[in-house]
Amino acid sequence: MSGISVQTLIGIGAYLVCMIAIGLWYARRGGNDPEEYFLARRGFGPWVAALSAEASDMSGWLLMGLPGVAYFTGAGEAFWTALGLFLGTWINWAFVARRLRVYSQLADNAITLPEFFSKRFHDEKRVLLTIAALISLMFFSIYVGAQFLTFGKLFGYVFNADMTAMVILGAALVMIYTLLGGFRAVGMTDLVQGLLMVAALLLVLGAGFFHAGGLAGITANLARFPRFLDFFGTAAPVLQGGVQETVRGVPQFGPGAPFGALSIVSTMAWGLGYFGMPQVLIRFMAVQKTAMIRPSRNIAVVWCFVAQTAAVLIGVIGRAVIPGGEAGLLTASGAENIFIVLSVRFFPPLLAGVVISGILAASMSSSDSYMLIVASSLANDIYRDVFKKKASEAEVLWVARITMLAVTVFGIVIALSGNQSIFRVVSYAWAGLGAAFGPLVLFSLFWRRTTLPAAVAGMLSGGGMVVLWKNVIAARGGVFAVYELLPAFLFSAAVIFVVSLATPKPIREIEVEFEKAKRAG
């Protein structure tokens, strides 16, 4: 290992020690209390709630996946994706957060999203709860794998280390502090990680802008590449075996292609996913008081705008600084290393290690949340509520921790399965959760006529349609090649509406609870 790598490792290591120390500190507060372990007893303030929600949501995708897309095919797809996510963030905080915070407590103090669904509809047989927990397990395991893949790509590039070993190392580190500290440790580490992520993005953006020669230098360098800066177009790298061709160090692009209305709607549909993201929704449920929702929303929206704008611009500016991809950036997967490449190139090794820790922050803040959500779903929602209603609190926590270990192992398998694009892995899991849960969250909170059979049908149809569209329908191309979240979300919403009208209306007790939540929220 070179001296430069040793200094970089010191910077990264200092960050990792801080995260584990936070986990150990909050492990003392968790005890054997599931409500503390899974929801921090609804004790999050505005800054923790906002930055924890955003950091856990964005994942390594923000610092690697999104800049990678902008670097490889230009500003178009990356810009519209980021805009859709920004609008989804604002709408979710503005309209869903307060109502869910109130309703989850009125619904017999539900502490997980599957438990909220079950108690909202008085699902005595726990059918809805079981399905929701299993869907969480399926798609969050894929999500965890995407974050572990980020660890492998990061350490593999910086230290020229074995991918398998680095994936396992990163997975083990996240599991340690999540296992020990629970949701409060996750929230507090996410606060630090959210601040580090945006600081790292702004540092790399500023350095890239300077090295590229300012606005004039950036536009001059990128003018050679057709439609690279066109929001209504997409650049078309000339590929040979999946690798972009270069001629005397100049990357080769075709004439590009229009990024039409259908493509824009498809990419902006990413924003629909927010309504069904348990890692975000659980933060709404954990806010200490409803009065804190507004300041939390303001913090979250500003953070989201700054972070995503910086991420897209880093990818664009990166192409101006390193146009020929001499640093191994000539594939869609390799392009996701642009943030790392710029960090190592612009900063002294020790500072580069701190900046690169922003990627670790993004991945760790997401994977810890996903692991905890799956663990809570299986331990609290299935083990205690379905199989062993008299399970002790200590027993529930042990089941949760064993589940985390299993999810960690499965995530490692996903990370090493051969799919090397973080953006594409995340997009599939995002669609699955967004379509399965998103429409049901909205109908549960805002339409009293929603029925239990409709909730079950909507959840299954949304998740099922994502799998069907992605693997069968989208292959037909044309109008069918849209992001699977959009048709699946609409289909699920239609199913919920139709089945609700076709089945008996909810019992009086459910309607009374709905009205209480409506007035309070």
- How many β-strands, per DSSP? 6
- Major sheet strand order: 1-6
The major beta sheet can be summarized as: 2 strands, antiparallel
Helix content: over 70%
Q: How would you describe what is shown here?
A:
By secondary structure, this protein is an all-alpha fold. It has a single domain (3-415), classed as Sodium/glucose cotransporter (Up-down Bundle). The protein has 18 helices and six strands. It has a two-stranded antiparallel sheet with strand order 1-6. The chain has a two-stranded antiparallel sheet with strand order 2-3. The longest helix is centred in the middle third of the chain and has 49 residues, at 163-211.
Q: SSE layout and pairings?
A:
Layout: H1 3-30, H2 34-39, H3 46-73, H4 75-106, H5 113-120, H6 127-159, H7 163-211, H8 214-222, E1 233-234, E2 239-240, E3 243-244, E4 246-247, E5 250-251, E6 257-258, H9 261-268, H10 278-286, H11 293-321, H12 338-346, H13 349-387, H14 393-415, H15 422-446, H16 452-471, H17 485-502, H18 508-520
Antiparallel strand pairs: 1-6, 2-3, 4-5
Task: Give a brief description.
This protein is mostly helical. It has 18 helices and six strands. α6 packs across α7 and α7 crosses α13 (349-387).
